[in-house]
Amino acid sequence: MAEHTVGRSRGFNPGAISDSDNYLKNSTGVLSWACTLDHKRIGLMYLVGILTSFFGGGLLALGIRAHLFTPSGALFADNDTYNQVFTLHGAIMVFLFIIPSIPAALGNFLVPVMLGAKDVAFPRLNLSSFYLWVIGALFFVGALMGTGLDTGWTFYTPYSTTTETSVILATLGAFVLGFSSIFTGLNFIVTINTMRPPGMTWFKMPLFLWATYSTSIIQVLATPVLGITLLLLIAERTMHIGIFDPEFNGDPVTYQHFFWFYSHPAVYIMILPAFGIISELISVHSHKHIFGYRFIAYSSIAIALLGFLVWGHHMFTSGMSSLTTIIFSALTFTVSIPSAIKVFNWLATLYKGSISLTTPMCYAIAFLFLFTIGGLTGLFLGVLSVDLHLHDTYFIVAHFHYVMMGGTMIAFLGGLFHWWPKMTGKMFSELGGQISCLIVFLGFNITFLPQFVLGSRGMPRRYATYDPEFAFLHQVSSVGAFILGIGLLIAGVVLLYSLFNGKQAPPNPWGGVTLEWQCTSPPPYYNFSRPPVVGDPYDFTGLGWDEDAENYIFLNPIESPDEASEKVPAQQPAHAGGQE
Amino acid sequence: MISGSHLLGDYTDRFWFPESASTFSDQVDSTFMLVLWICIFFMVPITFALVYFTIRFMKKKGEPAESQVSHNTPLEIAWSILPSFLLVWIFAKGALGYIDQQQVPDNADTLAVKAFKWGWAVDYGGGVIHPELHILNDQPTQLTMRSSDVIHSLFIPAFRVKRDIVPGRFNDMWFHPKVASQRVSDEDLEQAWADAKENNDGVFDREKYQFTEDGYRFHDLYCTEYCGKDHSKMQTVVVVHETREDLNAWIKKYSVRPDGVLPAEYGKLLYERRGCGSCHSLDGSRRVGPSFLGGFGSDREFTDGTKGKVDEAYIRESIIEPKALVVSGYNPVMPSYKGQLSDDDIDSIIAFLKSLSE
To answer: Does the domain spanning B263-356 belong to CATH 1.10.260.40?
Structure first.
């Protein structure tokens, strides 16, 4: 429809922003950032923190892959060094990067804006959770600078109660990070429950908010168990209270139950927000209503709840009773259904859409492919007899990297590119972004596909040296890791370059209809001057493309009475449409 | 006979799996392939739809979508429920296979296995303890496993079995081997020993020759639960004997100190076989425990503040009750070897230590 392409003069366009309103520029100086209560600035500070952690964890990963290029180990002088490197890689990536990545960095920025609110419910709590994150990170740096850490990120007893490395420092770090996570979750639950604007019923919320809400529930319910577990671990180590260490009549398997009762739901803390991002990206860049809104929303909640019932599948070989083991296997399969529903719904959203192959969309498509592999390979591990063979081999390593990295990290990157213009007010090089996505996608598959075969052929994980029959596949994987590293570096350069040389971003470069696209890029520090009017977050029919400004504008703004009067009345009442 | 990668343990031409050598292998492999085909059944159409939709519906910015359909409840219910039937199928197949692995037949041989940082000790009865696992072909065998320090896990890829070994618990596993290990010719074995004596100080590197020091081909046995520094070296081998006579002959070979072997020499063998070297070096370097080099006869300070000389009595006590007197600067982590070493074994080890201080 040609009339949708219109000139700059018609329609609603929030326009450019003055420096005095710009949340990035309305106050200056270090203290204006360090003491800020603005959720957007806190989100940006989180972003800087987690990207630094990701960079550090990534370098460690490259060290691991370089070391494994030869069977006897090519890089590190001894096995102790290798063990410390893989432990820190895991601990940094899990606790400092993936868990806070989407909820704390992107979530902090987006939740209030998507709600049309000025800030989260508890801005001071929000800032304190950022500082807790920093303190937790410092504990990890302390452990690194001290005697290192060589327990693996899982801190399994009795190894962790007997090793000479900095277990207490690192567990205290994870304990503090846990509180950071709880505070963020609590904040979002209250914000979403109480601060939705008039008209935004639960089923008119953007799906990113549904995902964030589900995540927050898990954070608040599961993270305290991690805190308890880590305190008991410290008590066992220092006072020998006799709960986890068999030498003092404890039981190591009890520790595993405690640990995975948190850490399995934590997997969904990592992946659910990614689902939320993908729902937004697929719909906006296809310019088509999300398919099956209710199924996607309910499946997020279903995953959050079912995720609490499957922790035992990390322990199929540890010697639980057969009945317990079989029940956990059955429960594990139930989680796969809601994940499959989402994939089908996203594919159906693409069908008959108007797809713009922008950088965020490229990452969303890469996510769909990689996450589907990650999800399907989980089936092998849920099947008991096959899991006995694959447990603790490279098959597991490949599986969880496909889910955590191919899923969460790729979705995070897609979301970062998607909301970058909104957060910074700058447009990045579209070509550069697309190239980064292609290289990341290829590098990722070259790194992790061979690891499935390594695992099924019997290569155990966490080995510093290995038998020569596994050498070829390890070498392919190592080459892939460096390609992946180059791809991520390009993505980083593209974004950094845009900060200094990027064009001024229009308010709505992609054509989204959620509320963040109705304010300027970047948003003013108060977000909205008055509560915005809320409609269906996925109704794209009222948008037009302004070629000159490279911006989408709202053709039928409710703010403008004369435009509203021209509107054709609806053919049927709103409630008759079911979801409308 | 065969060269190149075929020489490597458990290597096969099959893409996904190592050698299939137990009755569980075929069951696990067929279930694996079933799940794989189900994954392909989903993955191919999903990938096709993803690529096709992306290309087919790519449009210039500003062009509206062809459809704004928001949902289709029957379709969504269908794709939510129908895959569940496949899930029930693979769950049941996996659970049945798992139950098989839990039910030990009555006529199974039983071996006690001890895992420690970083090695294995298989108890063949009668005081014979050896790091290699030797079993009889076509005979169900049960392992009763315990750990003397941290969690380990016993994994035999060729048998498709794995079970954690948790300190403070006995964990069991069983399997039914169905392929006997071949023996290499005496010539090859002699050649390998000659090579070991010439180039490797008499230490037999089985990974290099791909057969054991007694000339058997083997299956790999790995530790798959991270257990510290030398986790990746905590490997041993499984040898499947064709006949019980052959197995018993092998066990007998290791039962006692053979006539004509000096205690110090036998002590060195025990040092290698029983994994003392994981914690005690022979070159003076510091590992988990004090080095054996120059240890005998030296004066030591202990963690309880007392001082003493390392003599026969102290070494004997350190083997039987290691935590009684610990050299200061080290942690009390050594497990007791009470009942696992005969008096002659301990004498031999003492003689070996003495020889290091001369």
So the answer is: no
